[in-house]
Amino acid sequence: xxxxxxxxSGALTVRESVMSALMLRVAGQxxxxxxxxxxxxxxxxxxxNVATQHVSTLSLTQKRRLKLALALVSDPALVICDEFTDGLxxxxxxxxxxxxxxxxxxxxxxxxxxxxxxxxxxxxxxxAVILHEGHVCFHGPARAVAHYFSIQSMEELYPxxxxxxASRWGESWMRHRDSYYDAFKLGRTGEPxxxxxxxxxxxxxxxxxxxxxxxxxxxxxxxDEPATxxxxxxxxxxxxxxxxxxxxxxxxxxxxxxxPSEWVRQLVIMGLAPLVTVMLILPNxxxxxxxxxxxxxxxxxxxxxxxxxxxxxxxxxxxxxxxIRAGAREIAxxxxxxxxxxxxxxxxxxxxxxxxxxxxxxxxxPSLVLGLSVEIITGGMPGYxxxxxxxxxxxxxxxxxxxLGISACSRNAERAHSRAWTLAxxxxxxxxxxxxxxxxxxxxxxxLVTAYYGWSGGMETLQGTPLYEPLTEYVRTWxxxxxxxILVLFIHFVIGTLLALRGLRKRA
Length: 508
Prior knowledge:
- The chain has helices at 14-25, 31-45, 60-71, 90-105, 145-149, 157-161, 166-183, 220-224, 241-257, 260-281, 285-293, 298-327, 335-343, 348-377, 385-408, 413-433, 439-445, 450-460, 468-474, 482-506; strands spanning 78-82, 111-115, 128-132, 135-140.
- By secondary structure, it is mainly α.
- The longest helix has 30 residues, at 298-327.
């Protein structure tokens, strides 16, 4: 259980969060069984009354209770909590410490480790480990902390630690460790116990001495009774990769649907993109009609060729915008959620497939709408329509994959978004510059530019029309054939996917 609340999805309800964790971690459960398990967990952590509220509306204490419920969905043998009670008021700290105690007793073999800077409720824990600047200063029952450090209350612990260098605290504990372990059945040695004040001359006068032979006594019956062990909890079987990926896709589309601001913006952009492109083409659409009617005079061919070139380039660049909006923030924006689910058994490949199932349609649909709208409104541009539409969609798919790769390798959403726009700017510059680059230099740069293959493959579909010869006159670089452009775009898609998978595994 990490300390940050970024591991929670604010758009989900409390019950949905637990149900989602169950679907990603535990296989073989029916819907009714998952509902019963979720209800049991929410009741155990005290959240049954807010089960239908969105996570974003919960208080700090309630969010920590929810994180505990999410950690317990697969009945783990070990639960590690980071700052579970830190930053809370005294009453809440006491309640949360009691909740952790209940978590350990809920299963006899479960171990709960809590890393905290709060010592107010230290007595609630079975064992305490005091760390100071990387040195172990104490390890044993919480009730022995006050004796060992010669303090009256736990609030004096930090001032006491500040009186010595951390290295000396560590050395002192190593000398006294065995005697404490022996006294509390944690070791085997006859070294007498004594307070740390006894090792330093001029230390505080107040001392607490324990006799060397004072050890916890056990009755004969306890000695003769055979030791019993409890088997650790059996790990719950994980769902298949396909089941995890399917749930992640459904969850992400559901979150999009319940966030009106997101899909409204998506619809607005989907409608504005064809409008902008058509506004560029319409003033010169009569040149395209004249060429189609058979007029091949230079006064008609050159404006028509320019219109096709710029109109198609604008469509390709708009597709890059669709891709950035869909994929740049998608992974980096929920890094905390991914890491929490990864600890619970989520497979990185399943997570990536789930993201592809959301991002690719979100890019593919606007790209297809853009291409079809331009063809219909302009009355159909010269050349072959189907290859152009296919190349437009593949450009979006390839660049979306690259954006996902950037997102997976970035620390946060803002950095991923900035890097994706930088890549799009490079595509814009090189796609335009390649029109005037020598062929030798173009061959070196072309494989690196996703947009160029979407654009040049579309221009190659004009081969066989009167517009093709003027295009070859003022474009010095060669046009990739549609089949070659499709192949290169597919390679870019594979590169982006592998980059995303590598980033997910590396930043796990």
